Amino acid sequence: MRRLIPFWFAFALFTAFNAYAEPPELALAGVYDEGVALDDYWVSEKLDGVRAYWDGERFWSRGGNEYRAPDWFTEGFPDVPMDGELWMGRGRFAELSGAVRRLEPVDPSWRQIRFMVFDLPALDQPFAERVAAMEALVQPSPSPFLAMVVQRKATDHERLMSALDKVVSEGGEGLMLRRGGSLHSTGRSDDLLKVKRYDDAEAVVVAHLAGSGKYEGMLGSVLVRRNDGRQFHIGTGFSDEQREDPPPVGATITYKYYGFTSTGLPRFASFLRIRNDEPEAP
After folding, report:
1. Were 122 and a residue from 16, 71, 220, 255 both cysteine, which residue would form a disulfide, CB within 3.0 to 4.6 Å?
2. Which sign, positive or negative, has the C-alpha torsion 119, 47, 44, 113?
3. Which of 281, 278, 2 is nearest to 142 (CA)?
4. Mind listing the GO biological process terms from this record (predicted)?
């Protein structure tokens, strides 16, 4: 059975929850730069998981595909929209991605996954109040597969960078900032910022280029296309296994980079992962 929630909370969410049949567009993060006033921000770890939207009954991917979690996994989940990450732990993104995209879920894999909630998108209150609402809703949950991403008040740039270095040294990916006074909104804005030592972006694989030398007979690089139509090559960041079985043409990949060249292309672009949320056959 689903867990009952307080009447006031259900009433506050009812209108927004019933306003759409498909999951809404998600909030997207901008990039933090030194100089941003941090006094109204909350900070949390940027998990290297799979973004997932819980609509009260099912999980949806960023691309609008369903993640078919076992019934036992979502037993006890609140019947309200929650935004978060399906997560196995640091450094396990590839394993996680394969598990959640299967059309037929594999129980042993899903028993290692948690849904880490970081927002209640249908609650029309400032984020600081949504934090309190998440604590009241998620932390008492009887489900061992549901948890809340820890949120703390940000202080200053130096402490933020120190926290970033600590997370990265422990195998984490980075930090996230959310403006405490902001209402939930979709699209990209300064209300939500990612804090990393490098930038990242997405591009579509256009072609494979053969390798040479120690990579003869394997992938050398991929030609990718950004949203603005510009193309460039990415030849680093791939494991030998990925060079044997590279991201397919048409796949969307995430890459990291360090600023831009004089011609406006990403500097030192390196492959991070496939951003593939299409269902995968058993």
Report:
1. 16
2. positive
3. 2
4. DNA recombination; DNA repair; DNA replication
pLDDT tens profile 150-205 = 999 999 999 999 999 999 889 888 999 999 999 999 888 999 999 988 888 899 99
Q: Name the segment(s) of the chain with CATH classification 3.30.470.30.
A: 27-195
The candidate with the shortest Cα–Cα distance to 50, out of 92, 86, 6, is: 86
Helix (H), strand (E), coil (C) string for the chain = CCCCCCHHHHHHHHHHHCCCCCCCCCEEEEECCCCCCCCCEEEEEECCCEEEEECCCCEECCCCCEECCCHHHHCCCCCCCEEEEEECCCCCHHHHHHHHCECCCCHHHHCCCEEEEEECCCCCCCHHHHHHHHHHHHCCCCCCCEEECCCEECCCHHHHHHHHHHHHHCCCCEEEEEECCCCCCCEEEEEEEEECCCEEEEEEEEEEEEECHHHECCEEEEEEECCCCCEEEECCCCCHHHHHCCCCCCCEEEEEECCECCCCCECCCEEEEECCCCCECC
List beta partners, residue 205: 224
**According to CATH, where is 2.40.50.140 located in the chain?**
199-274
Give 116's strand partners. 85, 147
Give the CATH superfamily of 199-274: Nucleic acid-binding proteins (2.40.50.140)
